[in-house]
Design brief:
Layout (H helix, E strand, L loop, with lengths): L1 H8 L6 H11 L4 H13 L5 H25 L13
Helix pairs in contact: 1-2, 3-4
Length: 86
Amino acid sequence: MNEVLNRLKRVRYIGNQTAKILYKREGIEGVEGLLELGHERLKDIPGIGDHKAKLILESARELKDKLEKCDNCGFYSGKDLGMSLL
């Protein structure tokens, strides 16, 4: 569980409590899960709301883009950094 929480907390605007709620209530384990959840469902989670949901999703997209670029650069991957997208 700690690995999942740490993975979620890599996304800006997600702290420990929000990570726990995302994991326990929604089964979210990483960036891709956040993006699939989407704005409408994310904003309804206690403590998030409309504005914070937009910020979280923006940060998640940026992180996913960075990790995908690393996977394609030939030097190292996001997985090598312990940043699996799950």
